[in-house]
Amino acid sequence: MELRLRRALWAAGLRYRKHYAKLPGRPDIVFVSAGVVVFCDSEFWHGYDWENRQGDIKSNRDFWVPKIERNIARDLDVNRTLGEAGWRVLRFWGNEITNDLDGCVGKVINAVKGLD
Question: How far is 33 from 29, CA to CA, in rounded Å?
């Protein structure tokens, strides 16, 4: 999913850094000069619709539930830290990229151009 988004952004003429280690959370895609970071989050690891879906985990719940809840808390902390530092943070779910790639690309383009 991340690769699909990166390829589409590249095809749209946008140049970026990937997995930028100089920022908290090591964003998947970074537009340094525009101050925009993009995260591509998988539904399982990042807790998509967590309130309704945590019951879907049947095995090893004592490990997975706290693990995913820590990921959710970490994502919120990273968003806050980056936002306070002046970065524009975009997060896309995997199914959002798969089902609406053009929409995701459009949101990134608008953020990079400062149109949103």
Answer: 13
Q: How far apart are CA 26 and CA 63, in angstroms?
A: 24
Closest CA to 105 of 24, 38, 17: 38
Q: Are 108 and 36 in contact (CB under 8 A)?
A: yes
Residues 72-107 have pLDDT tens digits of: 999 999 999 999 999 999 999 999 999 999 999 999
* CA angle, 45 then 48 then 50, to 5°: 100
The upper half-sphere exposure of residue 34, i.e. CA atoms within 13 Å in the direction of its Cβ, equals 22
Spell 50-67 as b/e; 16+ CB within 10 A means b: eeeeeeeeeeeeeeeeee
Residue 26's Cα: distance from chain center in Å?
10
Domains of the chain: 2-113 (3.40.960.10)
